[in-house]
Amino acid sequence: SYINILLLYFRLCVDKVLLQCVLQSRTLSAADAINALRPFYFAVHPDFFGQHPKEREVNENSLKRLNGYLENLQKPGFRSFKPTQLTFYVREREPNSSNVQESFSASGFRAVSFTLHTRDLLSTVLDILNSCSLSTEHVQSLNENSQLHKEAKSAANRPIKWDKTYYSFTGFKDPEEELEQAQRVETTLMSWLDDNEASAVKKLKKSLPLRKELERLKFELSRELQLSDIRWQRSWGIAHRCSQLHSLGRLVQQRPEVLKNVKGRTVVFTDRSGMSAAGHIMLGTMDVHHHWTKIFERLPNYYKLQKRLLFLEDRISQLLGGIQVIHIEELQPLLTLEEYYETLNSFYNKLRDSRLPFHPRSLRGLQMILESDRYAPSLHEFGHFMIPTVCDPASLQWFIFAKAQEARENLKRKEEMMITEKELIDTSTEKFSLDRLYKEPSVSSAQMIDCCKRLLEESLPHLQGMHLCVSHFYSVLQDGDLCIPWNWK
Questions:
Q1: What keywords are annotated for this sequence in UniProt (predicted)?
Q2: In the chain, how many domains are there?
């Protein structure tokens, strides 16, 4: 029996060496993987979804998790393995294509969901491209350029399958059985919290000094400049936000005279500098102080343009029976004041020329937003009309008359839903002793209400003192915030 054990050990060592050779022959370099995934990055990059905030945020979050997965695969001696489910919004394909995992959003993009469970870069890259129905021919050519791969191709196709008794005898874990079990078992809230509580607590404790620093900087700058608020367009980390506030603080010290016109305004750190359609001062995070200074110097001109914009909104309202023209930042792209003014002006001229017979104040109390990327009017679940700037005036008149009563009912339901949502957030925060409970903008009020109601039925001691974000996936953010999907199991 001692000889049998030695033979078995020898076979294990030989097969392990062969397996490593096979894996090396099938592994892409990090640079090759980036090149191979270029079509995928082009299809899902958040910058191409600027007109669609929900799709942009989902892609941003999924890319963060994908990059983490790819980085782990490249770490020497990486052993831990957890299947990762991702969802991306992808540009539409040709009309006749189909995929059972795809669904089309209201904006026309298709949502693609897939699970990564491979242990090498090549297989992972191929899985990503195949899941999004993208060509893999360039990946094969990249891989076949290696002479080592050509020589080891026959070995790469050799399956290594050991009898189940081998694992029983040696005590080693069967990788196929582990993979099947991981795919069978669906992630639950309790199991995920058990696995990730320690990591989240560690990150949260590390971030606490920075969080205090962020609150201090925000309070002092808001008070000194008499700002209404300071916000961020994206979910940057605490350290990144502190750095942005330090930059603004230095500008205040160096050029205090240029900030005299910001009283009562909201400052938003975002991707571009200017003034937003909502009248907020936008500071581009990639811009230097010189660009910020120019924005502050132009504020008087921006304020004049804003008055003209408000006049246009009022004129459009009068032409459409008193319906209010609004701009909702969470549902619309972050437009500059100039872009939004041009949109309003074009729509106003079309309405004025059409002379639609709306009775004055007949639609008072209703709301509408203008959209430049739609071709047909629609009614949002929150009660506001979504009107394309290219909409035919006659079609617009018929649609508004037909949906006016439903719009009023939706607006009333929205008010009730917002009250219920706030009450449930407060109750959940208190019950679980959370430091903070919030949701991503892409999560609707109805989804948040459903999530909180089910949370309140559970006992979750893991959440005490934590920051909980309701999202579409499970994740621990870099500052210790716990992200859970709103439809958790």
A1: Signal
A2: 2
